[in-house]
Amino acid sequence: MTAIIDKIAWIHIVEGKVLGARSHGKDTYYFPGGKREAGETDNETLIREIEEELTVRIQPDTIQMFGQFSAAAHGKEAGIQVQMTCLTADYSGTLAPAAEIAELAWLSYKDREHVSAVSQLIFDRLHEMQLLL
Q1: Which residues of the chain have pLDDT under 70?
Q2: How crowded is residue 52: how many other Cβ atoms within 10 Å of its Cβ?
Q3: Bridge partners of 91?
Q4: pTM of the model
Q5: DSSP label at 115?
Q6: Integer Cα distance of 52 and 122 in angstroms
Q7: Ramachandran area for residue 7 (φ above 0: left; ψ -120 to 50: alpha; else beta)
């Protein structure tokens, strides 16, 4: 049986680059977001995780579905998949790393090798759509 890690990710693009985050002690970037808590909707998870990790407030009425992507989970044993539900949204506040986040970075398509397998699928879709340079 395949185990699935259910994650919510924020896709935030500015001038052809997408916002990435790196946790303390890790060398891989990922899309900000995280796992849902019991009973949370996709939107509630996004709002809570982004506020915890990046100190900004997602504007709930701007949240839109970007897509769902699945791949082998990075750094986990074989057979564990991550399913990432990707959302876009506007925010208020100033982006700053918090909680487990060591660094924020604006990533272009050339940074694809520095992200997880599921994130590479998202990078490919963004690149095909000419959103990621």
Answers
A1: 1
A2: 14
A3: 58
A4: 0.93
A5: B
A6: 23
A7: beta
Kindly state the tokens that stand for 70.
């699945």
User: Taking a C-beta distance cutoff of 8 angstroms, is the pair 96, 18 a contact?
Assistant: no
CA distance 18 to 120: 12
Q: Which amino acid is at 35?
A: K
Write the CB contacts of 62 (distance below 8 Å, at least 6 apart in sequence).
88, 89, 90
19 Cα distance to chain centroid: 8
* Structure confidence by residue, pLDDT tens digits, 64-78: 999 999 998 888 888
Q: Pairing between strand 64-72 and 57-58?
A: unpaired
| Residue found under tokens 């990710």 | 9
Q: Above pLDDT 70, what percent of the chain?
A: 99
